[in-house]
């Protein structure tokens, strides 16, 4: 009863040729496409996803869930705003990650928040897969 995490290759350049045709949902950006690091946890009632999205604003995140697939796209604006950059280790580009959940979920109950560069997504499991406590009377 664990969630499966569909792994996508880390890409730091725009996909071309066969790579671009492999997955039409991936953003097409000349700036680069990055795979954010994530933690995926499971409780009896929900899946919890935490994704690192440095420099991304809440309005620049697109999260969709269809069936057992969840797709995360995010856009990061340039961080330096015309200032002279002396050294940079953070790339600027789009983020993409896809997940396949092994159990049915309540897509209408999904909640997401973004704070300090970390996206937190709460994905409730469908009622049919949640454990039930059955009272026993005497």
Question: What structural keywords apply?
Answer:
138 residues; mainly beta; Immunoglobulin-like; 4-stranded mixed β-sheet; 4-stranded antiparallel β-sheet; elongated; disordered N terminus
What do you see in this structure?
The model is unreliable at 1-24 (pLDDT under 50). The chain has a single domain, classed as Immunoglobulin-like (Sandwich). The strands form two sheets. It has a four-stranded mixed beta sheet, with no helix packed on it. The radius of gyration is 18 Å and the shape is elongated. 4% of the residues lie in helices and 38% in strands. It is built from one helix and eight strands; from the N terminus they run αββββββββ. It is mainly beta. The protein has one helix at residues 17-22; strands at 33-34, 38-42, 46-52, 56-66, 69-76, 94-100, 111-115, 118-124.
* General shape: elongated
CATH top level is Mainly Beta
Domains counted in the coordinates: how many?
Answer: 1
CATH architectural group:
Sandwich
Order of helices and strands: HEEEEEEEE
> How many E strands?
8
Write the layout of secondary structure elements.
Layout: H1 17-22, E1 33-34, E2 38-42, E3 46-52, E4 56-66, E5 69-76, E6 94-100, E7 111-115, E8 118-124
Parallel strand pairs: 1-6
Antiparallel strand pairs: 2-3, 3-8, 4-5, 5-6, 7-8
Nutshell version of this structure?
With 138 residues, the protein is mainly β.
């Amino acid at each position: 009863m664990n969630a499966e995490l569909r792994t996508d290759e880390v890409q730091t350049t725009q996909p071309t040729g066969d790579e671009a045709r492999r997955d039409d949902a991936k953003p097409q950006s000349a700036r680069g496409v990055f795979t954010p690091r994530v933690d995926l946890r499971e409780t009896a009632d929900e899946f919890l996803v935490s994704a690192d999205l440095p420099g991304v604003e809440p309005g620049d995140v697109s999260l969709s869930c269809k069936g057992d697939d969840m797709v995360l796209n995010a856009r990061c604006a340039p961080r330096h705003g015309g200032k002279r950059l002396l050294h940079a280790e953070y790339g600027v580009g789009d983020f993409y990650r896809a997940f396949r959940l092994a159990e049915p979920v309540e897509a209408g109950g999904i909640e997401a928040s973004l704070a300090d560069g970390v996206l937190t997504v709460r994905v409730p499991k469908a009622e049919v897969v949640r454990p039930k406590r059955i009272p026993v009377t005497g």
